[in-house]
Design goal:
2 helices; mainly alpha; single chain; 2 strands
Length: 110
């Protein structure tokens, strides 16, 4: 129960950080690498070429991170709800025993 809740919170906190990925990746784009026209290559650190990625590629990667964080948060929320339901079902079955309708034919539990 703790793990899915932790992952849900983590993915939920990642969504606002990548919310610029919800916008179009054409024209002027805002990415973690800066704001610039989509076809322009990003800068480098201290005039050293350490990476060269177009702003459009950075925008598409940001969009993918945004989508994955939303989907992940939803899936972990569903997992946590399913875990609660299974725990309740297990406690109920432990308290009252198996149902007479769920017996395997040919096996008596008396």
């Amino acid at each position: 129960m703790v793990t899915p809740t932790t992952f849900f919170v983590t993915d939920s906190s990642l969504s606002p950080q990548t919310r610029d990925g919800a916008h179009s990746c054409s024209g002027i784009v805002r990415t973690p690498l800066g704001t610039a026209p989509a076809q322009r290559a990003s800068g480098s650190f201290d005039d050293q070429i350490t990476y060269r990625v177009s702003q459009r590629t950075a925008c598409l990667l940001n969009k993918a991170c945004f989508a994955v964080s939303i989907i992940g948060a939803f899936l972990f929320l569903v997992t946590a709800a399913m875990q609660v339901a299974l725990v309740r079902h297990h406690k109920k079955e432990k308290r009252y025993g198996p149902s007479k309708f769920s017996r395997v034919p040919g096996i008596d539990i008396c």
